[in-house]
Amino acid sequence: MRLARIALLLGITTLATVIAGCANTIYLLANAPTVFGSYDRHTNLAYGQAARQRLDVYAPRYARNLPVVIFWYGGTWKHGHKANYRFVGAALAARGFVTVLPDYRLYPAVTFPAFCEDAAHALAWVEAHAREFGGDPHRIVLMGHSAGAHIAAFIAYNHAFVEKAGAHSQDIVGLVGLSGPYALVADTRELHAIFAPPYTEADWQPLAFVDAKSPPTLLLHGLDDKEVEPEQSVALRDKLLANHVSVQMHLYPHRGHGDTLAPFALLARRRSPAFEDSVAFIESVTRSDPSP
């Protein structure tokens, strides 16, 4: 029993460390239990012509008119792969949500706003195809971690950008941001290259697009986050409140960058309340009757 506990603790620590760095690795510990999940997984569905414009769908068995969650992973806009985050799709599908994990184009192949354009096109694809997997296209919650939270928030708040891609902002009923940079400043050489001129902070900061029509938002952040400071979530929370938008924020003491995502994996479920907080929020904003 003691050895089992030690192994579990090592697994949790390893998982949190890997996610904290947003590393493009095989999340073996996180994904191993997902093989036995009661869901159907549809992989590499094209939402565009580019090789990285592909997504995976995790649908609960016998799904019908269920809420849809679209999750974007992090990786500083330059690395990551949807297959590494199977544990996210499986965990949310187990709680009754049709879950979509898109890949998107990365730096240096592209710069801003290309990866956000991919996100908007993925949203349009979900609106068009959600019913094929038992999802309700009018009850969509966007979610992301780290750079993925930036992308999710950008799409959630920038209505004109979404409409240009053929998607509809009114179908977005909520946003879950995990450790995201919402007031991003391009203060390093690499960030300056990713968010290159002629674009400015007014173009790429999600909080710049907050208005009274912004969807209800949940912000989760670790107070010991060394990758993205928790003040980023505080700034977005304040902007949402100023526009009278429903917002919840949980700041977890003694928790770092990966601790808002690690609990989506079964082995790290107790690392923080982030998974249960996310599920409760999604349930609250999708509680209306399914669309006809």
Textual characterization of the structure:
The protein has about 290 residues and is an alpha/beta fold. The protein has ten helices and eight strands. It has an eight-stranded mixed beta sheet, with helices on both faces. Strand 7, helix 9 and strand 8 form a beta-alpha-beta unit. The N and C termini lie far apart (about 50 Å).
Features:
292 residues, alpha/beta, eight-stranded mixed β-sheet, 10 helices, 8 strands, disordered N terminus
Radius of gyration: 18 Å
Tally of helical segments? 10
Mean pLDDT: 91
Major sheet: 8 strands, mixed
Helix-strand pattern:
HHEEEHEHEHHEHHEHEH
Approximately how much beta-strand content do the residues carry? 15-25%
Q: What is the number of strand segments?
A: 8
Ends apart, CA distance between termini: 51 Å
Derived from helix and strand composition plus strand pairing, the structural class reads alpha/beta
Secondary structure: elements and pairs:
Elements: H1 2-20, H2 28-31, E1 39-46, E2 54-60, E3 66-72, H3 86-94, E4 98-102, H4 114-129, E5 135-145, H5 147-157, H6 159-164, E6 172-178, H7 189-194, H8 201-204, E7 217-222, H9 231-242, E8 247-252, H10 274-285
Parallel strand pairs: 3-4, 3-5, 5-6, 6-7, 7-8
Antiparallel strand pairs: 1-2, 2-4
Helix pairs in contact: 4-5
